[in-house]
Amino acid sequence: MAENTYKSNTFKKPEKEKKSKSSKSKSRFNLDFFRDPRFALAFGFFLLITSLYLFTAFLSYLFTGKADQSVVEALWSTNIVESGKEADN
User: Fold this and answer.
1) Fewer C-beta within 10 Å: the chain N or C terminus?
2) Is residue 68 within 8 Å of 88, Cβ to Cβ?
3) Which of 37, 31, 88 minimizes the C-alpha distance to 65?
4) pTM of the model
């Protein structure tokens, strides 16, 4: 007949690992978040979208900058709502 064998508790970690982990948790900032590939991907998309927005804004300024600047300079003599209707950008 087969003999019963009991497994040891695999959920408990050895004392060496507990000590090293407690020293890590005492640090002020946990930088593992920045090493996550998902964070790098999300941050890359954020930078890409921001760069596209800024590129569009600067390109638009090249074509309509003078017209919009005249609206800004006329702000002192006209109402804000009226001058905003004239803006091209």
Assistant:
1) N
2) yes
3) 88
4) 0.49
Contact 71, 87 (CB under 8 A): yes
Query: Which residue do the tokens 């074509």 mark?
Result: 63
Residue 81 in tokens: 């709502």
Alpha carbons 72 and 35: distance in angstroms, whole number? 45
* Helix (H/G/I), strand (E/B), else coil: 36: coil
> Which tokens go with 67?
């017209």
Distance CA 75, CA 57 (A): 21
Distance CA 39, CA 33 (A): 7
How long, in residues, is the chain?
89
Query: Which residue stretches of 13-79 are H helix?
Result: 15-25, 37-73
Q: Mean pLDDT for each consecutive 10-residue tract of the chain (89 residues)?
A: 73 60 60 86 96 94 78 69 62
* Residues 30, 62: Cα–Cα separation, whole Å: 44
